[in-house]
Design goal:
Distance between the termini: 38 Å
Largest sheet: none
Number of domains: 1
Number of strands: 0
Number of helices: 5
Low-confidence stretches: none
């Protein structure tokens, strides 16, 4: 089952988020983490590693170009805002807006993700890093 076809539930989103944080902090190796998590949720290790990469790019404010799942991206943004503060959220917003811009440049519809980011900005008052 492809990641974009999966029906996400809050519990699985949280598991992916928590393990992504561990990978980002280099507390667990990505391959090992993906294998273990694949045994718990209905995703392939390869798809899970894409989520890890997205999260890491968001934390550094770098654009990721892998096809993401909007629900996962917004969940990451929300949890970064809750757990890591304004600076981290600013980097994450920069990353996600960059991703959305890239996807739009190749003809993908990204209005929903852009609206979700704008709403997070409105609620938190945090702007993308560098803006």
């Amino acid at each position: 089952m492809a990641a974009e076809d999966f029906v996400w539930n809050e519990e699985d989103l949280e598991k992916i988020y928590l393990v992504s944080r561990l990978v980002y902090r280099e507390e667990i190796a990505p391959n090992k983490a993906a294998e273990k998590l694949a045994g718990i949720i209905e995703q392939s290790p390869e798809a899970i590693k894409v989520f890890f990469s997205m999260y890491i790019h968001m934390r550094y404010g770098r654009i990721f170009k892998q096809s993401g799942v909007d629900q996962m991206i917004v969940y990451f943004l929300r949890r970064i805002a809750e757990e890591d503060g304004d600076r981290a959220l600013g980097f994450a917003l920069k990353s996600v807006y960059g991703y959305a811009g890239f996807k739009e440049s190749v003809g993908c519809y990204m209005d929903d993700l852009n609206k979700a980011c704008a709403e997070i900005e409105r609620i938190t008052g945090v702007k993308p890093a560098g803006s």
